[in-house]
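Teaching assistant's notes for section 4

Start the section by putting this record on the projector. Ask students to predict, before seeing the second block, whether Putative DUF58 domain-containing protein will look compact or extended. Collect guesses on the board.
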Amino acid sequence: MFTDGWYESGIAETLLALAAAGQHVVFVQLLSPQELDPRLDGELRLIDAELGTGKEVALSGGLLRQYRQTLAEFQDELRRLCADRGIPFVFIDTSRSISDIIASLATIPNTLRL
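Reveal the predicted structure now:
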């Protein structure tokens, strides 16, 4: 499963259903540098690329620190969710080269071998 992992709900049920169906599941979270460390400031209108909806926000240093903390906690929760179901979790920063990503995947036990 290749995803950014941003689900409002249902990811736990989806992972459980795939595992229960006998699927070999590997959860690969892909995030861009902009998602990992946004460099935004001021009053902005953010557009959800998948839904096409927008939201007015006022961004400050404090809010961005909170975002980074929330992202770290979210990734920890995804890792726990996967571990509890025996599903390997792989994180990929999309700024890395594909050859670097493939090399790093080869060192992770119980993941896909490319």
